[in-house]
TrEMBL record:
InterPro entries with a match to the protein in the record: Snf7_fam (IPR005024)
Species of provenance: Pseudozyma hubeiensis (strain SY62)
Protein name stated in the entry: Vacuolar-sorting protein SNF7
PANTHER family assigned: CHARGED MULTIVESICULAR BODY PROTEIN, GH13992P
Start-end of Basic and acidic residues biased regions: 441-465, 476-498
Amino acid sequence: MTAPDPPPTTKEGLSAYISTHPSFQDTRSSSSPLPALYSDLSRQRKSNPAGYRASVEWWKDVLLDVTFRGVQFETSDTVQDRTIFTLDESTKARWTIPSVGRPLGLGTVVSDLATEHVAYRVSSFLHSSAPIALPASIIRDRSGGRGLKSYIPTPSGVASTLLLTPAKFLASSLYTLTIGGANDDESYSADEQLFHKNRGEWVLLPLVDRIATTFLARFEEEASISPLACLMTKGEFAVRLGEICEKEFGFGVVGDKDVDVLLKYLSRDLNRAVRQDSLVKIFLQGQSPTRLTAEDMSVITVKETLRKLDLQLISLSQRITSLDSSIKTSLRQNQKQLALTHLRNRKTLQQTLDQRSNVRDKLAAVVAKIEQAKTDVEVMKAFSASEEVLRSVLGRDELRIENVERVMDGVEELVGRQGEVEDAMKMTSGDVDEDEILEELKGLEREKRQEEDTKRLQEQERIPEQNKVNQTDPNPESKETQDKQLEDDLQARLDRLRLSTPLPTSPPPQPKSNTTTHPAHSAIAES
């Protein structure tokens, strides 16, 4: 009976990144770029310059990618810095591929990043007072609106670029001539010497610039509402930075070194912040940077106290909830004395919570008044600036009263002269014949009457046609109506005929008799 297969281990950190990156798949294939990428790049510098350049660029992009993703180490339990790459003895081991070996060119890659001012040692970056000149690549990416996309490649994009570009494919073809194995004498390798020389932590400037510029853009949208939002402690800055990074990049916790690096970059290189110990002031676009004043420090102190009170209220509420649960448990277990103790503690905490809530409400009201006063100051500055501009404009010679009156008098005079010119032109255009106008009006009236007569005749011609259409109307109701009218017309005609022609009256009929009438009787009757 065969043993069951062990459950698959869940990869995380750098192992998970390598397992999903196309360039690290099919490492035994002849078309895999890894042999050239993992070789001693210092030897490629002379033997294959094109392949050397392609390999260095690939490593730059990948190192930037794993640093920003926070996967340069094997574990994700601790907070990892998103702007700092660490080069130490364990770096090669983490990047080791069983069928290829360990990367031999990391020292050369980091050295190249430093030469191009893309990477700086953390210590020199934080302690240098001279502003850092941005590399042309960052300026180009900013102007093109691409941010860091040229530095953060998609895995498929890196692999396809490396495999399809002839110069980069040449690096892979010359693998057998340039690769250095694990048994080589590394004491004479230039890359190995650079590796030992460049060990330590390196600030990757493109990553710093991406996070800093994104933070400023999103922070300005929120800070424009509240004038006190720009004043904060270092801890509050870290929280605000984490909130913005969570929305934009998907990681909400920023390391302490990242916070120090970003504050240094904002204050020294972008001139958008000032830091004094643990106090920070951010400047919006167009504002002139100034040092922290005593008023600024007081505002930050009040805000920080308010924040601590909020944390205390949350903690007290949680402890009261826990004591409520303990009291119920003690009563269920008939531990009245213990329940009484919990109840006393709960009462004390409730009193403390009420006191802290009152203090917090009063302090919040003070902060609201300060914010309103700050807004009023800004409004008055705007009024003052507008008053100065209006005074300057009204003080110009063009708007002096005497000049305005002179100009208006001149305009009025010219308008009058223009009217005289128009009147003169009308007089010289000739008199109008009134009789001719009346005759023309009569002609227009005749034309109008003719048009009306023509229209009336057309209407009369259309009436019989309409009647004819009505006679052939298939509607039964209209047919019955027409028959009724025709019957009524016939009846009326008959009535008129009866009245005009009286009918003759006949003599009453004589009764018949079997006796013979005497002629004399008949004659008498007729007479």
